[in-house]
From TrEMBL:
Homodimer. GO terms for molecular function: ITP diphosphatase activity. Pyrophosphatase that catalyzes the hydrolysis of nucleoside triphosphates to their monophosphate derivatives, with a high preference for the non-canonical purine nucleotides XTP (xanthosine triphosphate), dITP (deoxyinosine triphosphate) and ITP. Seems to function as a house-cleaning enzyme that removes non-canonical purine nucleotides from the nucleotide pool, thus preventing their incorporation into DNA/RNA and avoiding chromosomal lesions. It comes from Natronoglomus mannanivorans. Pfam families: Ham1p_like (PF01725). InterPro entries: dITP/XTP_pyrophosphatase (IPR020922), ITPase-like_fam (IPR029001), RdgB/HAM1 (IPR002637). Mg(2+) binds at E35, D66. It catalyses: XTP + H2O = XMP + diphosphate + H(+); ITP + H2O = IMP + diphosphate + H(+); dITP + H2O = dIMP + diphosphate + H(+). The keyword Nucleotide-binding applies. Substrate binds at T7, G8, N9, E10, G11, K12, A67, F140, G141, Y142, D143, K161, H166, R167. It is an enzyme of class 3 (hydrolase). This is dITP/XTP pyrophosphatase. Keywords: Hydrolase, Magnesium, Metal-binding, Nucleotide metabolism, Nucleotide-binding.
Amino acid sequence: MAIQFVTGNEGKVREAEEYLEGIEPVEQVSFDYTEIQSDSLAEIAARGAREAFVELGEEEPVLVDDAGLFVDALGGFPGPYSAYVEDTVGVERLWRLAKGEENRRARFETVLAYADETGTETFEGTVAGTLVAPRGEGGFGYDPIFEYDGTTMAEMSTEQKNSISHRGRALAAFAEWFDDR
Ligand code: ITT
Ligand code: NA
């Protein structure tokens, strides 16, 4: 058995594989689940995981990850629109937007939704940090402009990022629950 990680984002898969190594194998699967209009990442992820589990034949468990970057000074923007904003505005220009603000605090949030024949469970993770000019070649997405404790997430190894990140925290909650079932 392998967990089917339904995502088009290879960075997410790398982090999940690294974290779940020795617990459960992870396989990337492409499936375009419906992203419902909602301000709740948990609701979006849970519905997506359920739909993917059913549509993929209800054989193997499914994992979905819905994440966002929430910038304090921008009223939480881009939040649930983070993927769209990365594609259109871009990471560098989002930094320039934040640069003009005195308050550069931001947080990443992610919700992991796991679905199998017994039901659907969600696990959340958050990390608070500061937006900075882009640094580092690792990670993905907004990592180069998100600094935690003096280091951008793009300057961290996958293992280091997992030890402090929103996704790492959600994976920790998931792994604990998964192991205890
Ligand atoms: P899937 O929906 O296919 O999983 P996606 O990249 O569209 O992939 P999201 O909607 O969850 O995923 O992503 C929201 C945005 O936030 C997107 O631009 C990501 O690149 C970015 N993002 C998510 N997790 C991140 C992380 O750990 N570090 C930096 N950026 C991240
Ligand atoms: Na997405």
